[in-house]
TrEMBL record:
Keyword flag Zinc: yes
Protein name listed in UniProt: Beta-galactosidase
Keywords: Glycosidase, Hydrolase, Metal-binding, Zinc
Domain Glycoside hydrolase family 42 N-terminal: 27-399
Top-rank taxon, per record: Bacteria
Enzyme class: hydrolase
GO molecular function, one term: beta-galactosidase activity
Catalytic reactions of this protein: Hydrolysis of terminal non-reducing beta-D-galactose residues in beta-D-galactosides
This protein's record includes keyword Ribonucleoprotein: no
Family: Belongs to the glycosyl hydrolase 42 family.
The organism's taxonomic lineage, starting at the top: Bacteria, Pseudomonadati, Pseudomonadota, Alphaproteobacteria, Hyphomicrobiales
EC numbers for this chain: 3.2.1.23
Pfam families linked to this entry: Glyco_hydro_42, Glyco_hydro_42M
């Protein structure tokens, strides 16, 4: 296997490896050694070429401080290597051993109520702690030195799902590191006081040593700038913690690839040092878990959304944990994939940018907090349908890997994403409005269900491959994005801006120009003269939101006077009437700007709600409200269709997803049936189904959870 130097971060970046990584996380420390060789033989027969191990084994690598023992993993790596299977090692810093937390209790996280974490779980150590960082460097250096000349160790994963269990800490050492971060960032206390608005509520400081960590509602709200900087600090500290390990690994063996596997994506700035340090980013994919936790209405659509969000951070990725069966910890469990569904979910990951898939896990644990988290092999050591599906998938991908590697996922519609500051800015002052991602999800879901090539992209990426770009209520708009976005429009692209865009600066101050700020106003031909909240769709007022926030717990909504509940705002777009969601804006429109939608009731009646301005060969559309499912559908029909954003397949049946991966010389169309019953796809373009080597065209029937990968005729 060969590693190339990775290209700069971009949604369009392919992986820098010449191998499609196929396998499973493996835990030889959980299994009697007499079973290891049988495991390796079964893996090889199934088509496994890679395993991942060691992420929770610090206590084995270093049973006592300064005394290292690698024998167990050395033997396991050799057994796997003899079967032709390479090993990805992990730095084990997600689970520091008991001797460490006993001897150095200052490394433990402290929660918002001042309670120190206890030993007996994971991620109990504070990654902002200088003491813990020193131990992290030490174990990484020892492991790297031991394995530097072992050709069977092909790459490394840093830690495991950083910040997934918890990202915040309120330890004394965290406070001190936060103060150091702020002093380095601002230089003077006067600069910080300006950024945080110290003249509001007398929150100014005389010295950096006075600054506290921002605890919520103590007794009222802290400055948005204070909160934003705390999360910027957490992201910088997470990146620095990982950077320590990456520095050691790169210096020891520059041929190793290095990645990190993400879970919940909290307090990590992927576009900053964190992502730039890595060869690529990896994402753990548990579609049924995400869907049940977030109630997003369908795990297939949820998986596609999650993958598209992740790809925007760094381009193509690997999945070191792909759901194989039921997933469970003591407090939750997921649904179980039906026969064929495990393979389909893995194929969805490939269709949306994965260049490596590892089913979690090879065999399930018999002890600990995940005893019902099922693996490829069952508890009784019998390979059943999950093994058969994994084997089928591995062999299929192995046969077509050369067609897949080097391709990227096509997008006709890009949704602005992957920007840490905008994500956090919303959280600091949401006022009951949906987050940018919550709003964007409505548009993404419509595109997914209708087979439109849609994904997420950062404005710094190459926009020329898009036909349209939607910016979902980004309150922070940076001047360095202006030229690229304007060029995109002048060259024929359609830019869609939305309410509240560009209304705050990087300090979370409201801008002093008329919204949406001079640059976006010039682009769109629109200035906002007034905005106001409206009752959310299906809601009955805002007072319950305040009560919930103020009391720290959910309070059932109280009935409101009918006049409040009935204060609805409507607008017309085309020949349809819509109810506004969440917010209205009144727009002042430049002479060269066309009005597409008009407010149609109350005091807003007759005033512009949605506009369009031609610029070069493209146009800029401004939407003075938030999306609803109905408005998202109409925007696609009225605005995006004119931009050439149309379904990849006409007459796409419900429950069928379609996407394209492409390079300059080829296009691969993935058509996947997410339903439990067969379905006929009526208009498949001519090509070769790579999974069967058979020609396809016109009507094609897919079995329950069936998949085809069509090499299109160009």
């Amino acid at each position: 296997m060969h590693r190339k130097t990775p290209a700069p971060l971009s949604v369009w970046r392919p992986l820098n490896l010449d191998r499609f990584l196929l396998g499973a996380p493996h835990y030889p420390e959980h299994v009697d050694e007499s079973w290891w060789r049988r495991d390796a033989e079964r893996m090889a027969t199934a088509g496994v070429n890679t395993v991942r191990m060691g992420e929770f084994a610090w206590h084995i690598f270093e049973p006592h401080e300064g005394k290292f023992c690698f024998d167990l993993f050395d033997r396991a790596i050799d057994v796997l290597g003899e079967a032709g299977i390479g090993t990805i090692m992990c730095t084990p810093t997600a689970t520091p051993p008991r001797w460490l937390t006993a001897n150095y209790p200052e490394v433990l996280r402290v929660d918002v109520n001042g309670r120190s974490a206890g030993h007996g779980s994971r991620q109990h150590a504070d990654t902002t702690s200088p003491v813990f960082r020193a131990h992290s460097r030490r174990i990484t250096r020892a492991m790297a030195s031991h394995y530097k000349d072992n050709p069977r160790v092909i790459g490394w994963q840093t830690d495991n799902e950083l910040n997934t269990t918890v990202s915040e800490s309120f330890a004394p050492s965290t406070r001190l590191e936060f103060q150091k971060y702020l002093q380095k960032t601002y230089g003077t206390i006067d600069a910080l006081n300006f950024a945080w608005g110290g003249n509001f509520w007398a929150t100014a400081y005389d010295d950096f040593s006075q600054i506290e960590l921002p605890r919520p509602l103590m007794p009222s709200y802290p400055s948005p700038g204070h909160v934003q900087d705390y999360h910027r600090f957490l992201a910088a500290a997470t990146a620095a913690f990982q950077h320590d390990q990456v520095e050691v690994l790169r210096a020891t063996n520059p041929d190793w690839f290095i990645f990190h596997n993400l879970g919940q994506l909290a307090d990590i700035d992927f576009r900053g040092q964190f992502g730039q340090d890595l060869d690529f980013i990896a994402f753990d994919i548990y579609p049924m878990l995400y869907d049940e936790m977030r109630r997003t209405g369908g795990h297939a659509a949820t998986q596609a959304l999650h993958l598209d969000i992740c790809r925007a951070y760094s381009g193509n990725f690997i999945v070191p944990e792909q759901a194989a069966g039921l997933g469970s910890q003591p407090g939750f469990s997921t649904m179980t994939p039906e026969p064929g569904e495990m393979r389909r979910m893995a194929m969805t990951s490939v269709a949306r940018g994965a260049d490596g898939i590892m089913f979690f896990r090879w065999r399930p644990a018999h002890f600990g907090a995940e005893i019902y988290w099922m693996g490829v092999i069952d508890h009784d050591d019998v390979p059943r349908r999950r093994y058969d599906e994994a084997s089928r998938f591995f062999h299929e991908i192995t046969a077509i890997k050369d067609q897949i590697l080097g391709t990227v996922v096509r997008m006709d519609l890009g949704i602005a994403g992957a920007d840490f500051d905008n994500q956090e800015a919303h959280k600091t002052y949401p006022i009951g409005l949906p987050s940018p991602l919550e709003d964007a999800t409505l548009l993404h879901r419509h595109c997914y269900r209708n087979g439109i090539a849609c994904g997420f992209i950062h404005p710094e990426d190459d926009l020329s491959r898009l036909k349209a770009l939607y910016v979902p209520h980004w309150v922070m708009w940076k001047d360095q994005w202006n030229d690229a976005v304007e060029t995109f429009v002048r060259n024929g692209g359609t830019l869609i801006l939305s309410a509240m865009s560009g209304t705050r600066d990087e300090n979370n101050h409201i801008i002093r120009e008329q919204a949406p700020g001079n640059a976006l106003a010039t682009l769109s031909g629109v200035r906002v003269t007034e905005f106001g909240r409206v009752v959310p769709e299906g809601g009955n007022g805002l007072f319950p939101l305040f009560r919930q926030a103020a009391m720290g717990a959910y309070v059932p909504p109280s009935p409101l006077p009918s006049s409040s509940a009935e204060r609805k705002y409507h607008f017309a777009l085309g020949n349809r009437q819509f109810e506004a969601a969440h917010l209205y804006e009144l727009l002042e429109v430049a002479p060269d700007t066309e009005v597409l939608g008009v407010w149609s009731n109350r005091f807003c009646a007759g005033q512009p709600a949605i506009t369009s301005r031609s610029l070069g060969q493209g146009r800029v559309v401004y939407i003075g409200t938030y999306l609803t499912p109905e408005l998202a559908e109409t925007i696609v029909d009225v605005v995006l269709a004119k931009a050439g954003v149309t379904p990849l397949l006409p007459e796409l049946p419900a429950g069928v997803e379609v996407s394209i991966r492409e390079a300059k010389d080829r296009q691969l169309m993935f058509i996947l049936n997410t339903r439990e019953s067969p379905v006929t796809i009526p208009n498949v373009p001519p090509g070769i189904d790579l999974l069967t080597s058979r020609p396809v065209a016109g009507a094609v029937e897919l079995e329950a959870y069936g998949c085809i990968v069509v090499l299109l005729s160009l």
